[in-house]
Amino acid sequence: MTAAIILISFVVLRVTEREILKQRTKTGETVFSIIESSLSHIKNQNPDGSPAYLKIQPFITSLVDDKICSRILLVNNQHLVISKRALHR
């Protein structure tokens, strides 16, 4: 009887862990989609090629300050850091 209870508890624990992992993955994908669309909007506001970096920094800062992300590092195609921010603990 005790073995059955332990086995059932173990199965419930594993199923719960999988569901939590699925939810975290879906949340991460949603956050990435929000970031992508917001950055595209900022880029489209500057079609003349002028750097939009000054407009990106407040956005990045708000993502960390609102605890949507714990840290963000944004790089361009040449692998240069455009913006970075980490949550201070």
How many domains in all?
Answer: 1
Structural class: alpha+beta
Q: Any low-confidence stretches, pLDDT <50, length ≥5?
A: none
Residue share in helices?
A: 55-70%
> What's the pLDDT, averaged over the residues?
81
Please provide the ordered H/E string of secondary-structure elements. HHEE
How far apart are the first and last residues' alpha carbons, in Å? 46 Å
Q: Give the overall shape.
A: elongated
Sketch the major β-sheet. Answer: 2 strands, antiparallel
Q: Helix count? A: 2
Strand content: 5-15%
Strand order of the largest sheet: 1-2
| Rounded Rg | 20 Å
Record field, number of beta strands: 2
Question: What would you say this structure looks like, in words?
Answer:
- This protein is an alpha+beta fold and 89 residues long.
- Helices cover 63% and strands 12% of the residues.
- The protein has helices at residues 2-44, 53-65; strands at 71-75, 81-86.
- The chain has a two-stranded antiparallel sheet.
- Strand 1 and strand 2 (81-86) form a beta hairpin.
- The longest helix is centred in the N-terminal third of the chain and has 43 residues, at 2-44.
- It is elongated and about 70 Å long.
- 2% of the residues are buried.
- The model has no long low-confidence stretch (mean pLDDT 81).
Compose a concise summary of this entry.
Helix content is 63%, strand content 12%.
